[in-house]
Structure formats: C-alpha cells, structure tokens
C-alpha cells in the first residue's frame, strides 16, 4: 500500500482484518479525545502496525495516518492462532514490536 502525507491507513473503530508492516516512510498513531488529537506514537522504522486489535480480536483502538510518503505491506489474516504457529518470523517481529511499544510508553510516563 502506498500512502501519501495525510492519508490514513485505518481509523480507530475500524474492524481489524490485517496486520501491516511499515516498509518505508513515517506514520502517526493518534486518538481523538474530546475533539483533540492526542499523538500516541510515530512509527518510522520497520514495525508491525495494527497487531493489538488483531490479537485481541477487537476494533482498531487508534488511527494511523502518513506523515511522509510511506510504503506499507498488508498481511491478511484469517485464523490468528494458526498464523502465529506457522509463521515464526512474524511472531518474532510481533514480540519485538510489542516490547518496543511498552518501552516507549514507559518512557513517556516517566517524562510526565
């Protein structure tokens, strides 16, 4: 998928049917709260995107939009458990992505 600056990959509240991998570019993860945009993260390295909603089988919890021209790989998934069992490379990437996000969240909390 090619995204131009300002284009959305998905919105908070959308159904989850895929995981995405940022190949190049820069994406903003944000939520709208009380009419204001709250930035949650900037993704500018090869990472998974949208993994939380897929694993939890829930709606997207945040919106993602391109801040720069971006290339994103879309991985359609059916049975998430089967996919994880059969794809150790993606499982490692998922673990690395989740670990990085937890670390970034902890750093933000410590700055407040």
Secondary-structure map:
Blueprint: E1 2-3, E2 8-10, E3 18-24, E4 27-33, E5 36-43, E6 48-49, H1 51-56, E7 63-66, E8 70-76, H2 80-86, H3 88-111
Antiparallel strand pairs: 1-8, 2-7, 3-6, 3-8, 4-5, 4-7
Q: Report Rg.
A: 14 Å
Number of strands: 8
**Major sheet description:** 4 strands, antiparallel
| SSE order, one letter for each helix or strand | EEEEEEHEEHH
Beta-strand share of residues: 35-45%
Q: What spatial order of strands do you see in the largest sheet?
A: 1-8-3-6
Descriptive keywords:
4-stranded antiparallel sheet; 36% strand; 112 residues; alpha+beta; 8 strands
Descriptive overview:
With 112 residues, this protein is an alpha+beta fold. Helices cover 33% and strands 36% of the residues. It is built from three helices and eight strands; from the N terminus they run E-E-E-E-E-E-H-E-E-H-H. The protein has helices spanning 51-56, 80-86, 88-111; strands at 2-3, 8-10, 18-24, 27-33, 36-43, 48-49, 63-66, 70-76. It has a four-stranded antiparallel sheet with strand order 1-8-3-6. A four-stranded antiparallel sheet has the order 2-7-4-5, with no helix packed on it. A hairpin with a 2-residue loop joins strand 4 (27-33) and strand 5. It starts with a strand and ends with a helix. The model has no long low-confidence stretch (mean pLDDT 83).
Summarize the structure.
The protein has 112 residues and is α+β, with helices and mostly antiparallel strands.
